[in-house]
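User: Hi! I have a protein structure encoded as tokens and I'd like to know what sequence might fold into it. I'm fairly new to this, so please keep things simple.
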């Protein structure tokens, strides 16, 4: 009798947890087709990191969804589908995680890659969109670049600085610059910046690109958050606008620096011989979601709420803003 009861208990199927289902799906993508799983220790750690990061993103997005349901007067803003693991398109997510993991993007590292859940109305599920941070752009450029510089210098120029570009001409064999910081503790306002590609063996290939504030502003997201760029934002009480504004200092200098940093690494030509399936998959993800869907989502929901991510015992605003889909230099 006891043995029969034990057997019945063992036959009860316990639903797999989100973590187990996520890991199973991702590991299946690494399989050889005959049941073998070839995950390195590094790749296993990345899978765990992606689960943790996506779990945080889902919970934060669900809190925001519930607030909108409760307080928004516009039915168009209300989304009845809970943002939970059960409603995530796991097949698509598993394939995408394989691609970003093989490239080496680690969500546990600041500004490598960020995840945003986005509702796919065609299947009534949520797709997880991967947005490269500026460190992720650097990693991809160094891995897939054609002619990678020995070093890249990125600097902001302030109103009290003395900056002199030295372009290549009959007097200068290669491009260079002079930067004299007159007052290091009070440099004034940011008036621009530059990046400098350095080739130690062949300095004639050195490249200096100067960016004015106008150039930086071109790359600023259309709906840039005040928490990032500074400025004014709406004041909310109980999820509703009060009609008041509050000034936010933001991280203006850091965002200007990141903007130039992104341009510096996007300016590295990709080597077609290094392009693999994972790189192509990342481009497919970018083209599918950013160009067609994410822009409209951000325009509808920009600046409503900023999520603070705590890393290394300090608050840090993650670099998750979407840049304009421009075709100019450095994009």
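Assistant: Happy to help. Inverse folding works backwards from shape to sequence: for each of the 331 positions I chose a residue that suits the local structure. Here it is:
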């Amino acid at each position: 009798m006891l043995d029969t009861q034990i057997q019945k208990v063992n036959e009860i199927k316990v639903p797999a947890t989100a973590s187990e289902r996520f890991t199973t799906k991702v590991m299946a993508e690494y399989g050889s087709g005959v049941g073998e799983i070839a995950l390195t220790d590094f790749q296993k750690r990345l899978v765990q990191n992606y689960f943790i990061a996506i779990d945080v993103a889902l919970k934060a997005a669900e809190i925001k969804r519930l607030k909108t349901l409760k307080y928004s007067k516009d039915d168009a803003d209300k989304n009845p589908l809970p943002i939970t693991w059960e409603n995530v398109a796991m097949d698509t997510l598993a394939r995408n995680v394989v691609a970003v993991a093989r490239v080496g993007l680690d969500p546990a590292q600041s500004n490598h890659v960020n995840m945003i859940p986005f509702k796919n109305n065609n299947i009534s599920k949520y797709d997880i969109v991967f947005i490269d941070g500026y460190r992720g752009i650097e990693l991809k450029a160094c891995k897939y670049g054609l002619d990678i510089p020995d070093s890249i210098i990125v600097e902001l120029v302030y109103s009290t600085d003395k900056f002199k570009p030295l372009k290549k001409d009959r007097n200068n064999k290669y491009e260079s610059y002079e930067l004299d910081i007159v007052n290091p503790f009070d440099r004034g306002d940011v008036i621009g910046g530059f990046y400098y590609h350095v080739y130690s063996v062949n300095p004639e290939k050195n490249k200096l690109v100067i960016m004015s504030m106008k150039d930086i502003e071109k790359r600023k997201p259309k709906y840039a958050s005040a928490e990032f760029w500074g400025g004014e934002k709406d004041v909310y009480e109980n999820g509703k606008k009060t009609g008041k504004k509050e000034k936010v200092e933001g991280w203006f200098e850091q965002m200007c620096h990141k903007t130039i940093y992104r341009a510096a690494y996007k300016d590295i030509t990709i080597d077609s011989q290094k392009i693999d399936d994972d790189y192509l998959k990342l481009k497919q993800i970018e083209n599918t979601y950013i160009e067609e869907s994410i822009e409209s989502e951000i325009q509808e929901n920009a600046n409503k709420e900023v999520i603070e991510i705590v890393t290394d015992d300090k608050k840090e605003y993650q670099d998750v803003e979407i840049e304009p889909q421009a075709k100019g230099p450095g994009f």
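A useful reference point when you look it over: The chain has nine helices and eleven strands. Feel free to ask if any position seems puzzling.
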